[in-house]
Amino acid sequence: MDRKNLTDKYSIGKMGEDLAAEFYENAGYFILARNWRWSNKGEIDIIAYNKEMNVIAICEVKTRKINTFVRACVAVNAAKQKKLRMLAKVFFSSNKAYLKADVRFDVAEVSFDCTKCSASEINLIENAF
Fold it and tell me: Of 21, 34, 58, 125, whose CB has the highest number of CB atoms within 10 Å?
């Protein structure tokens, strides 16, 4: 894959993450972190907290072009789920203030419209795993 395609893929993914973060904020969540990394072990796309519900959403964002035949959530397989659980444990070990919050793992499926060059639609799957 050439550098231009990587940049386009990165830009499309960033647009999807922006839309998902905005979705959470509009639903009353505070974004604790975006693209939270632990060394070279992995990354959590969005960590969002809703104080009223006392819940933290660990969200994996998957952005796909419109008319893709396979749902984006399929990419969050058992290995990815295991990695996200491990990363969440590390996040909470260094952010003990949130230990009493309920935690759920969400997947945000974002549709990208190539003709409009924009993320157009989001399907948030709460408690995806």
Answer: 58
